[in-house]
TrEMBL record:
Gene3D superfamilies: Ribonuclease H-like superfamily/Ribonuclease H. This is Rhodopirellula transposase family protein. InterPro entries: RNaseH_sf, Transposase_36. One of its GO terms (molecular function) is nucleic acid binding. Transmembrane segments: none annotated.
């Protein structure tokens, strides 16, 4: 007996789409339908294994199923042998990663190579050389966790101060100590680029037909999102500010947030604030330092300012929220302030919606202390001795 080419091809292709018990039953029933000599024919014409056919025939005859342990086959993933591996990789890499400077993607870009991550796993986390996977595997794990080495537009800073690496190391140490202490709460604060309100194309895509203005004329209003992120809780607070963001504006947002949160965090004695070196909040901004000193005196809580190096603002954790927000509303027309606020409220960060408020207070620019007044404030500040002239 011979099989015509069309039937032979159909049987071979069908068998390849199946696996395990279903595959064996198909082979057994096919051989049964071929009649006497079916096993030899299937082996010769279709390339089927006789042992597999017989196993399927026994299952078909007795009505039992041989369980296929596919999950136990092959090499185990590294994290199955080392259950803390992924957590330890994140602990090493997260503080050395930045958001996409242009907010075109949610990816994070890390300063560390896979080889360096592997070295730090051995030095910091106590892994041995033999038990860790190769640098190539570590690179794969970094990609799976969302950390990429790709260089994008501004990923290379315009300048790098000699103190940059020392500042990064100091910020990393401060953040780790804060996250490990139940009496310290770490937050990340920053303002996003100002959003023009009007029928402007924002470069996004939409499945709903949307027509934007052909020219970017004068906006009807502007809104500057100010964000406060609690990294340990994956909670985000957004404030849509219609005025210019100043030192007083940022200080007021900190007060608004703390009034809302301080009962919940009654055990907290110190706030660690991650910041960039923006003109409104750097450590030599006299009005900003004065307002923070007033905050400390009013609420009887210590504040530690952990600044990221100049020209490295995208490493500030709250910056990652801006990429999500930008992609969330990019395909829509933000033609009113209310639309901006509603889109911010419907965004999700780590599965949670942010708390969003509109701030219409008008803030005066150019407010600063006299030299004598700032000298009095300086007596209440403690700067790092090795970086006293840098934020």
């Amino acid at each position: 007996m011979e099989l015509v080419p069309e039937v032979k091809e159909l049987l071979i292709e069908t068998e390849k789409t199946l696996k395990g018990h279903a595959r064996r039953l198909f082979m057994a029933r096919t051989v049964q339908a071929l009649g006497e000599g079916g096993q030899c024919l299937a082996e010769r014409e279709l390339g089927w294994n006789r042992a597999t056919i017989r196993k399927g025939q026994r299952e078909l005859k007795r009505g039992i199923v041989c369980v296929d342990a596919f999950s136990s086959r092959g090499r185990k993933r590294s994290e199955e042998h080392l259950p803390n591996l992924l957590t330890d990789i994140i602990a090493i890499v997260d503080g050395q990663s930045q958001a996409d400077p242009q907010f075109r993607t949610n990816r994070l870009y890390t300063r560390l190579t896979a080889t360096e991550v592997r070295r730090q796993l051995i030095a910091q986390k106590g892994y041995s050389e033999d038990e860790l996977p190769t640098a190539e595997t570590i690179a794969t794990k970094l990609n799976e966790l969302g950390y990429y080495p790709k260089k994008v537009g501004k990923s290379q800073p315009q300048k790098k101060l000699p103190e940059t690496d020392a500042i990064f190391a100091q910020v990393k140490q401060i953040n780790e100590e804060a996250d490990a202490n139940e009496q310290i709460l770490r937050i990340s604060v920053d303002a996003k680029a100002t959003v023009k309100v009007g029928p402007f194309a924002r470069g996004g895509k939409s499945r709903i037909p949307t027509k934007a203005a052909d020219h970017d004329f004068q906006p009807t209003a502007t809104v500057t999102p100010v964000g406060i992120l609690l990294p340990a809780f994956d909670e985000v607070f957004f404030y849509g500010v219609t005025s210019k963001v100043t030192s007083d504006c940022l200080a007021d947002r900190l007060i608004d947030w703390w009034e809302r949160a301080r009962e919940r965090f009654s055990q907290i004695t110190t706030l660690v604030i991650n910041l960039d070196n923006g003109p409104e909040n750097h450590s030599r901004r006299t009005q900003f330092m004065q307002r923070l000193l007033e905050f400390v005196q009013q609420y009887h809580i210590n504040i530690c300012l952990a600044y990221y190096p100049p020209y490295h603002s995208k490493y500030n954790p709250v910056e990652r929220c801006w990429g999500i927000l930008e992609q969330h509303w990019n395909g829509s027309l933000l033609n009113s302030i209310d639309t901006v606020i509603q889109y911010a409220r419907t965004m999700t960060w780590k599965g949670k919606h942010p708390t969003v408020e509109l701030v219409t207070t008008t803030y005066q620019t150019g407010v600063k202390l006299t030299k004598e007044a700032m000298e009095a404030v300086e007596t209440q500040l403690q700067r790092l001795p090795s970086l006293e002239k840098k934020p």
